[in-house]
């Protein structure tokens, strides 16, 4: 359990991402493998979707410098990026469009759980492998066509709560959450479910809806019960407003988030440092990056002019996992890729362990969770 973070600690924010880059075989021009990536590039979850897309773009650029071998043939990757905003119907429409193109071998994304959950049953119907890259809501029903590279709320948030409750002597916890976002709602549910086993009392459970401008009623209710800490389950856009209004109300208690929200520089800047001394979890130990990870971080900074976040790594990890699955399958085929992904066990060059061996459950069985 590291100390609560400050502005200076936001510099190394990513998990996962270096890629498989086997040497080009022969001199023939590489063939092309097409992939469809769906992300929330606009709307309240765009801070995550844009970074996952950028991470995948950088991964595509790096791997295409040499190409990669599948079954003795050298390929490059062509990823089509599409915006689902915050609309589950749009996400389904886009993945149907990807599946209708016989040259598209798989889909990636989205980080937005509203879209990811809606796409899961659809890709089974369409026979299109889907590699999730950041959605963290626990799925009730899996199928053999879906895997997910990142840790999820049900894994990361209980670990975080145990660490923070012990470190900050939290006896009374309040929760404010976006009830319209699957991932944020699931984080709130984890807080409720873990109260007895971890040893805190849930004293306030306040909901809001995406886009709400005013949280004074919820904050007033929270202040009246005098919590020791507040769990803020909100995407960056709404979370910045919630944190800002909490601090403007004079509440200086520690704040807790799931899914690495507070680690986004946009969050810090938007609430003017209101998350100083607060807590969250993310995938990977990012304080002392390996040389390969630092190289990726530097490349991202150079290409996009901003710090990478954990979601950039998820996008890159999805590309690495997809390429690893194709290489394991030995051919470019949707069904063969599905079977290969279900049994894959690989470590990306910067240390992300991706292992799926419990079909139809597609969760990464060995994710890294770091609390900070």
Question: How would you sum up this structure, described in words?
Answer:
With 372 residues, this protein is of the alpha/beta class. 40% of the residues lie in helices and 18% in strands. The chain is built from 11 helices and 14 strands. The chain has a 6-stranded mixed sheet, sandwiched between helices. It has a 4-stranded parallel sheet with strand order 8-7-9-10, sandwiched between helices. The radius of gyration is 20 Å and the shape is elongated.
Keywords:
14 strands, 18% strand, six-stranded mixed β-sheet, four-stranded parallel β-sheet, 11 helices, single chain, alpha/beta, 372 residues
- The end-to-end span amounts to 6 Å
Compute the gyration radius: what is it? 20 Å
In percent, how helical is the residue content? Answer: 40-55%
Find the structural class using helix and strand composition. Answer: alpha/beta
Write the layout of secondary structure elements.
Layout: E1 31-39, H1 46-63, E2 68-70, E3 73-83, H2 88-100, E4 104-108, H3 113-126, E5 130-132, E6 146-148, H4 153-168, E7 172-178, H5 182-198, E8 201-208, H6 216-224, E9 229-233, H7 236-248, E10 255-256, H8 265-270, E11 281-282, H9 291-304, H10 310-329, H11 334-342, E12 345-347, E13 353-355, E14 370-371
Helix pairs in contact: 1-10, 2-3, 4-5, 10-11
Briefly, what is this?
The chain is α/β, with parallel strands linked by helices and 372 residues long. It has helices at 46-63, 88-100, 113-126, 153-168, 182-198, 216-224, 236-248, 265-270, 291-304, 310-329, 334-342, and strands at residues 31-39, 68-70, 73-83, 104-108, 130-132, 146-148, 172-178, 201-208, 229-233, 255-256, 281-282, 345-347, 353-355, 370-371. It is 40% helix and 18% strand.
């Amino acid at each position: 359990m590291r100390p609560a973070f400050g502005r200076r600690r936001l510099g190394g924010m990513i998990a996962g991402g270096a890629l498989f880059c086997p040497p080009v075989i022969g001199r023939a021009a590489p063939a092309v493998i097409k992939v469809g990536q769906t992300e929330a590039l606009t709307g309240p979850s765009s801070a995550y979707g844009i970074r996952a897309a950028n991470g995948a773009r950088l991964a595509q650029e790096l791997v295409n410098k040499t190409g990669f071998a599948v079954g003795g043939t050298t390929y490059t990757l062509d990823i089509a990026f599409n915006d689902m905003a915050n609309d589950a119907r749009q996400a389904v429409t886009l993945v149907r469009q990807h599946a209708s193109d016989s040259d598209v071998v798989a889909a990636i994304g989205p980080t937005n759980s509203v879209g990811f959950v809606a796409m899961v049953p659809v890709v089974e119907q369409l026979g299109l492998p889907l590699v999730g890259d950041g959605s963290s809501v626990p799925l009730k029903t899996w199928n053999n066509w879906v895997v997910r590279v990142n840790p999820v709320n049900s894994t990361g948030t209980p670990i975080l709560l145990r660490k923070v409750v012990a470190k900050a002597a939290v006896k009374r916890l309040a929760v404010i959450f976006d009830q319209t976002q699957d991932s944020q709602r699931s984080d709130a549910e984890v807080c409720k479910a873990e109260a007895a086993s971890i040893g805190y009392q849930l004293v306030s459970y306040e909901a809001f809806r995406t886009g709400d401008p005013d949280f004074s009623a919820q904050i007033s209710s929270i202040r009246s019960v005098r919590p020791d800490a507040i769990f803020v389950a909100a995407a960056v856009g709404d979370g910045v407003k919630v944190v800002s209004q909490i601090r403007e109300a004079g509440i200086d208690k520690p704040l807790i988030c799931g899914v690495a929200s507070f680690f986004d520089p946009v969050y810090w800047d938007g609430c003017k440092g209101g998350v100083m001394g607060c807590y969250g979890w993310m995938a990977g130990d990012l304080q002392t990056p390996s040389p390969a990870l630092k190289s990726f971080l530097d490349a991202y900074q150079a290409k996009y002019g901003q710090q990478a976040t954990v979601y950039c790594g998820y996008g890159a990890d999805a590309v690495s996992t997809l390429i690893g699955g194709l290489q394991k399958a030995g051919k470019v085929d949707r069904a063969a890729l599905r079977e290969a992904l279900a049994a894959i066990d690989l470590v990306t060059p910067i240390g992300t362990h991706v292992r799926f061996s419990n079909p139809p459950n597609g969760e990464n069985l060995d994710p890294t969770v770091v609390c900070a």
